[in-house]
């Protein structure tokens, strides 16, 4: 579903649509509050949830990867448990990059599996049990902040710094799964992702509601060996906010001749890719996409499309390490 434009309105002027829908938003918030209050499975190892208050993409996957790498560097064996959005396997199943496809396990688990073991399970508690049995000494729960099936020892809330919490209203009147205050009450760390301008905007609009440790981070592209300056590019992306990917390419100096914003997790069918290939050839442009999209590419197109990888840059890990220390992980 494409987010309604009024979801992006300022919180002090949410729009008449949000006000009209406020009874439904209140019902949605009450339903979420009742659901998250149910007790869940208590794992024998620390469980760190990487979630969000907003519906849609906020940067949970790069945050999960960054945390997995951080823990691995300190000698731990983190496993990720994911619902496997977009995949058909019920699980629990350990993701195997050589065997599984995005159609089976979802694109995000395939991407994360390049960094640390990943389990896909529609039943998250069953996935956590399997990860424990396989030797995990810490579990990263990818998404699931509003899912009560597993008890969390640490909850990391991820937010896009530029968008913040939208108009501050709960679905359907706004983009939130629950009120900001309710999410903060169950969270421990807030990671806002964006450049300096975006972080300043977030501070101006939302700092007063942040009642947990606040960490600023930015997604930065990795070197690809390709000189982007002046490179003619046709970029496509099926992520939460494709325009951010296009802006990154522009910032690297690429000449974007054509962009195609796909739906989040949209299958990259052969007919779609053939159309994009024909258009790119006509423009004399190189096809470029994101890492998350690349795992969904048909095999015949994997050598034809350049992937631009990005990693989450967290300048100050001290607040996060403080919480990890509380769990005995530092």
UniProtKB/TrEMBL annotation:
Any GO BP: lipid A biosynthetic process
Gene Ontology cellular-component terms listed: plasma membrane
Domain of life: Bacteria
Keywords: ATP-binding, Kinase, Lipid A biosynthesis, Lipid biosynthesis, Lipid metabolism, Nucleotide-binding, Transferase
Catalyzed reactions: a lipid A disaccharide + ATP = a lipid IVA + ADP + H(+)
Protein EC: 2.7.1.130
Pathway participation: Glycolipid biosynthesis; lipid IV(A) biosynthesis; lipid IV(A) from (3R)-3-hydroxytetradecanoyl-[acyl-carrier-protein] and UDP-N-acetyl-alpha-D-glucosamine: step 6/6
Coiled coil, from the record: none
Positions of ATP binding: 54-61
Keyword Electron transport annotated: no
GO molecular function: ATP binding; lipid-A 4'-kinase activity
Broad class of enzyme this protein falls into: transferase
Keyword Cell division: no
Protein family: Belongs to the LpxK family.
Role played: Transfers the gamma-phosphate of ATP to the 4'-position of a tetraacyldisaccharide 1-phosphate intermediate (termed DS-1-P) to form tetraacyldisaccharide 1,4'-bis-phosphate (lipid IVA).
Name under which the protein is recorded: Tetraacyldisaccharide 4'-kinase
Native species: Celeribacter persicus
